[in-house]
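Researcher: I'd like a candidate sequence for this fold, 194 residues long. If you have to choose between options at a position, lean toward the conservative one.
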């Protein structure tokens, strides 16, 4: 499992309807993408759910690196680059994935939290705690799924969860889910990834 996210922070007066229209027009194009677990088309609007910014920030969990590479280098990603410029595309190695109790419900919101891996931390114990936290979040009322991954270049953890209601029980940046492409979600490995 491999996580990918890029963020397009937009001006405060940007018409976010442009992003909504774009997702409505092209979101379905990854609905059957081979190698993709899921892609969430995420939006934060300034002043909504505590967001200080306008941002479009899709988040992906990939089943295969080949699927991700085909997306990035095979032409699909170029459409976004043409429309918005080339963003920094962050990548993390998967640590844990769990389906939530509301797995069959429509995902309305996402929560993403990034945090540094503390210097001097005992890694196996910390990662065991991350797996346990992912399982706990997935067990909360309204959770559709929860995942965690790590960037070992920056030593940064990312915690990600989808929610069926507007009161997520996880800490972090709250996003609206505009569309969810999930061709291989049922094949994402559950639990600990090692």
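Model: Candidate sequence:
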């Amino acid at each position: 499992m491999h996580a990918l996210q890029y963020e397009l922070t937009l001006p405060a007066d940007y018409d976010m309807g442009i992003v909504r229209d774009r997702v409505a027009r092209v979101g379905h194009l990854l609905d059957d993408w081979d190698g993709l677990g899921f892609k969430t088309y995420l939006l934060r609007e300034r002043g909504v759910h505590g967001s200080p910014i306008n941002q479009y920030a899709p988040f992906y969990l990939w089943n295969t690196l080949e699927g991700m590479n085909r997306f990035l280098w095979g032409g699909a990603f170029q459409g976004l680059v043409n429309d918005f410029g080339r963003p920094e595309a962050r990548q993390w190695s998967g640590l844990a994935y769990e389906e939530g109790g509301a797995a069959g419900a429509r995902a309305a919101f996402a929560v993403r939290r990034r945090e540094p891996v503390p210097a001097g931390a005992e890694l196996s114990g910390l990662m065991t705690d991350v797996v346990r936290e992912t399982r706990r979040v997935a067990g909360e009322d309204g959770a559709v799924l929860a995942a965690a991954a790590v960037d070992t270049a920056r030593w940064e953890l990312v915690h990600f969860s989808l929610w069926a209601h507007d009161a997520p029980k996880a800490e972090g940046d709250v996003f609206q889910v505009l569309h969810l492409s999930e061709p291989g979600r049922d094949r994402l490995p559950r639990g600990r990834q090692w």
